[in-house]
Amino acid sequence: MGSLHDQVAIITGGAQGIGGATSRRLAESGARILIADIDIETAQANADRIRDAGGIAEVIETDVSRRDDIKAMVSKAVELWGHLDILVNNAFNTKEPDGSAVELTEEAWDYAMNVLVKSMFLGAKYAVPEIQKSGKGSIINISSVHGLLMAPKKLVYEAGKSSVIGVTRQMAIDFGPMGIRVNAICPGHIVTERIESHWAQNPSLLRFFEAQYPVRRVGRPIDIANAINFLCSDEASFITGHALAVDGGLTIQLQEDFGVDQARFYRDHPDTNLSS
């Protein structure tokens, strides 16, 4: 019997990547999983994988930029299993390039903020009343190290991921008295299925990325899934409103020393191709 036995969890963007690994990890812990994803074919394949391993999973096509889709996914989970305990707000996609305030289009800003932030507001709006009926539960919002530290020409992504942390803290205050804990995860660079081929074509740049991490590797989706599983479990029952950096130590480094280390790496590895 796993630590999440008989709990019901919705994972947005649960088809692959961090969401895919989280769906499988929570299922291993005994949760019943509703994968809410815009990519229904890949979502179904992940659900089949969970079932083949002995878990319970269903799928619903969901675009988290649409209020009605978010409302429907919550209703579907309750319809399937009678209650709801966990919501993992993970889904994100973008239609247009990011940039500075001068370069970014208004349409790109609106869409990205809808997916990054508004979806979490709406997820809580419809999920919290159902989780409250269960007596306790957990919401996990996926932020990023980009919510803690800024990068050039990523205005809407940095703004969105920073906002996720603020939203998480506010929700933790509002819903804690209901028995609902709300936490955020701030992943470092995670090698998902979508970018594995990129690194395969440019292994020298991957080595450069790995050298930026004190643990000397980049992350895998299971690293984030394990952290989410912990925060959803009773072992984390006194943790709420926290933004947990799961980043191999990336964000704890003094920047001027970090820059020197990177210069040394490039000196010692002149074959590194920095054109990603």
What does this structure look like?
This protein is of the alpha/beta class and 276 residues long. The chain has one domain (8-193, 218-250): NAD(P)-binding Rossmann-like Domain (Rossmann fold, 3-Layer(aba) Sandwich). It contains nine helices and seven strands; from the N terminus they run βαβαβαβαβαβαααβα. The chain has helices at residues 17-28, 40-52, 67-81, 106-133, 155-175, 193-201, 203-211, 221-232, 255-268; strands at residues 8-12, 32-37, 56-61, 86-89, 137-142, 180-187, 243-246. A seven-stranded parallel sheet has the order 3-2-1-4-5-6-7, sandwiched between helices. Helix 5 links the parallel strand 5 (137-142) and strand 6. The mean pLDDT is 93.
Determine and state the CATH class.
Answer: Alpha Beta
Oligomer: single chain
The name of the CATH architecture is 3-Layer(aba) Sandwich
Shape: globular
Beta-strand residue fraction:
5-15%
- Any idea how many domains? 1
Give the SSE string. Answer: EHEHEHEHEHEHHHEH
Task: State the CATH superfamily name.
Answer: NAD(P)-binding Rossmann-like Domain
Helix vs. strand class: alpha/beta
Strand order of the largest sheet: 3-2-1-4-5-6-7
Looking at this protein, list some descriptive labels.
276 residues, alpha/beta, Rossmann fold, 7-stranded parallel beta sheet, 7 strands
